[in-house]
Structures are given as structure tokens and as C-alpha cells.
């Protein structure tokens, strides 16, 4: 794996960096820890349920490495139907796609505030 790919992977699979205040104290919220715990549980459940060695990415057929993705975007929702392991590349593009969709939605929302439509 290239250094660039490795860096991208590290950035993507790592949890968001904890925040530190000016005095250097970690001000990470309990919610941040809760999400990490929930993600860990999701991974544990998923790889108990599925065979990691023979697993193929349902999106591209690749052989990983895999991330366990929350379909609804909520890392606290570990319902089995909400979890799917996809390879890190597909995971990355899935979240990129979602952000793009969200941007369009935000834009539409803003736009509808500006424009008054006469019926
Ligand atoms: Zn894939
Ligand atoms: Zn995801």
C-alpha cells in the first residue's frame, strides 16, 4: 500500500482526534467515547457474525481492509440491519457521496428560504 493510501486509510478509519483546550486538558465529550465504544461493539458483532477471511466487499468485491459502516449514519445504531462491512475505499466514497447529497439538500433548504414561490 502506498504511503498516500496508508495516510488516507489512517485518516479515514481513525476516530476523530480528541479536542484539547488551551491548558492541554482533553475536553473530549462523553458522547465521543460512547461512539467509539459503539463502533468497537459493531465491529466485534459483525466479525463474529461474518467470516472476515472469506469476506468480500459487497460494493466492489474487494478483499479489504474493511470498515463496519452504519447505513443510517448513526454510529450508535448497532441494529444488525444497520451494519455492513465495506472496504475502506468504498467506505470513503460512500461518505463522500453522502456529504455531496447533504450539501445539495442544504443548498435547496437555503434556496427555498430565499425564494418565495407564488402559487
Ligand atoms: Zn469495496
Ligand atoms: Zn460509514
From TrEMBL:
Per UniProt, residues of the HNH nuclease domain are: 45-92
Under InterPro entries, the record lists:
HNH_nuc
UniProt keywords (A-Z) are: Endonuclease, Hydrolase, Nuclease
GO MF:
endonuclease activity
Name it: HNH endonuclease
Species of origin: Haloarcula saliterrae
Amino acid at each position: 500500500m502506498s504511503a498516500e493510501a496508508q495516510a488516507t486509510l489512517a485518516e479515514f478509519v481513525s476516530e476523530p482526534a480528541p479536542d484539547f483546550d488551551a491548558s492541554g486538558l482533553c475536553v473530549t465529550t462523553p458522547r465521543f467515547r460512547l461512539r467509539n465504544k459503539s463502533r468497537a461493539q459493531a465491529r466485534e458483532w459483525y466479525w463474529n457474525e461474518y467470516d472476515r477471511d472469506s469476506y468480500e466487499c459487497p460494493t466492489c468485491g474487494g478483499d479489504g481492509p474493511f470498515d463496519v459502516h452504519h447505513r443510517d449514519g448513526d454510529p450508535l445504531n448497532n441494529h444488525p440491519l444497520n451494519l455492513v462491512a465495506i472496504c475502506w475505499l468504498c467506505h470513503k466514497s460512500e461518505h463522500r457521496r453522502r456529504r455531496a447529497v447533504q450539501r445539495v439538500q442544504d443548498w435547496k433548504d437555503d434556496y427555498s428560504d430565499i425564494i418565495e414561490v407564488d402559487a
